[in-house]
Amino acid sequence: MANSYTQSRIRKISRRFGLTPLSFDSVASLYRKNAVVRIQTNSGTYAVKPFFRSLSLRSGTIDQMKTTAGYIQLLMNSGFRYMPEWLTSNSGKLWTLDQGRPFYVTTWIKGRELENQEDFKKLGRALASLHITSSLFRPMKSPFYEHIELWKSHDRLFRRQMTKAYQTDLRTRTWYKKFGESCNRFSDRSWTELKKTEIIDLLKREMIHPSLIHNDITSYNVIISDDGQLFIIDWDRMKAGSIYVDISNALMNTTQFNPDLIYSLLQGYEELHPLDRTERKLIASLYRLPREAWHATRFSNRPRSRNERNMLDIMEHTWFLRLKAMDLLDEWTNQ
């Protein structure tokens, strides 16, 4: 979509939401050059966002957009305040279709990234609010998204690739030899814990009455606005799934293994949604899984993007910080 955002196209989409753009510019994300279009209007600044389907789901793009819009409407009706305002199109929907691609429009949030312990407490409260709010209704318009079973398949692929390390590039082969067995030990410990009766029962209860999860909490998707309000953006991957997956992902993707920030996020979460020992153990087990290694080596025989090539290097540079973070979560579990 590098050259698809012409002035006439953006104007046409914007007008369906009652907006007249004075100017616009494309803003890149970590993975896409034209992730969102920022438009300036007389009434303020807005984000025009193309919706991209999740490849891990079998449903099509439009069906996924409909489901996501339904979830967003439920959150809006429930007073959830940690996301930008979604605008309604002239058709009465929260999205529109243009050239076969769904688009939605939200207010543009100007602000900064997460910086301090108070910011991470706010993020913890925001996650807890999302999980509590959505647990009050039945969001099951689509199947429960089973992350854990998917991760098990990634782990099996990782182990098979380790046995064929000679077929990979030198960097990946060297990394396997240095860290591969440790990754497998972490996984083995987590899989053993996840087989315990109390955790199996917890996951079964959650599948019966799940909550909505953002499913992509990263530092890039959390903004502290100029007035200090925390906003979570980019809700395309929103699912009915496990809150414990959502928490462990947020810890991994935002705290940079900083113990103060880890504790602050968890403290903020438990202010609204206290966690018992079994829930804490589940979060610690999911956090321990070496998912980044699985992802980075998943297609080791194919050309990888710069982000994937750098992922193993980042893991190597932060290895001891990760070990300390795992120990910290074990301590938190036993408090």
Automatic annotation (TrEMBL):
PANTHER family, A to Z: SPORE COAT PROTEIN I (PTHR39179:SF1)
Stored InterPro entries: Aminoglycoside_PTrfase (IPR002575), CotS-like (IPR047175), Kinase-like_dom_sf (IPR011009), Tyr_kinase_AS (IPR008266)
Entry-linked Pfam families: APH
SUPFAM superfamilies: Protein kinase-like (PK-like)
Region forming the signal peptide: none
Record protein name field: Phosphotransferase
Stored Gene3D superfamilies: 3.90.1200.10, Phosphorylase Kinase, domain 1 (3.30.200.20)
Source species taxonomy: Bacteria, Bacillati, Bacillota, Bacilli, Bacillales
Gene source species: Paenibacillus chibensis
PROSITE patterns per UniProt: PROTEIN_KINASE_TYR (PS00109)
Residues annotated as domain Aminoglycoside phosphotransferase: 34-274
